[in-house]
Amino acid sequence: MTKIKSYPIDTNITGSDKWIGTDANAANRTKNFTPTGLADFFNNAGSVDHINALRFKYDTVDVGDDRAIGSISFATEIGATVAFSSISQFMLHRNTSDGNYIVDLMDVFDGNTIMIQKVDDKNVFAFYRITNYEQDVTETEFYNTSVTFVEGNGSLEEDEYYFVSLLQFDASTNADKHYAHTQSVASATWNVAHNLNKYPSVTVVLSTGQKGYGDVTYVDENNLTISFTGAESGKAYMN
């Protein structure tokens, strides 16, 4: 039998090349393996570290279903394919798909620019600025993440994997923290003392999960009121 070292070296490796190995799931039979198959395994298993990247699987959640561990999803199901440009909020599990706890890191990402990129197609990507990252009051393993779309190409696709990575860190922006006001008792007027020393933008999410619309009156740089046509409860986010 010819010695391995006598074979010429392949200098043009392609995904369809083959090498021989042992299949542990088929009684240790000898089979051919390809670079493409190995790459798919590494991507799906999260076996290779991707610097500064957090890996999540896009999970569609029907009514009554549990959200998957290590997933990115939406509070209300909006489809198997969702254009990046249409996304303003999503839910992230506290762990990545390969089991790493990332809440402390995501807290630092808050207020900065991130990139979401499909694991197996780098041309599918989006840049966002995170405007809020907060634990969900009901599904406490998940964090509601509000974003502003900057630029991108493509969509989130059901059951596909995506990297979330910090693209730009602005220390001054990160120091300028947001404020979340909780209105647990329904009222037509919410009095908010945010103490941000500025006139912030305001986003309201009602206790029903719907976006709320009220008249914002700035009392001064640290206080404001939000007025509704009827009594409402929920949260207001200042940035």
Question: How would you describe what is shown here?
Answer:
The chain is mainly β and 239 residues long. It has 3 domains: 16-48, no CATH class; 53-174, Elongation Factor Tu (Ef-tu), domain 3 (Beta Barrel); 178-238, no CATH class. The chain is 10% helix and 48% strand. The chain has helices at residues 35-45, 103-109, 171-175, and strands spanning 19-23, 29-33, 53-58, 71-73, 81-83, 89-93, 113-118, 121-135, 142-153, 155-157, 161-168, 179-193, 202-206, 211-212, 215-220, 223-238. It has a 7-stranded mixed β-barrel. Strands 12, 13, 14, 15 and 16 form a 5-stranded antiparallel β-sheet that branches. The chain has a two-stranded antiparallel sheet with strand order 1-2. Strand 8 (121-135) and strand 9 (142-153) form a beta hairpin. Mean pLDDT is 85; it is low at 46-51.
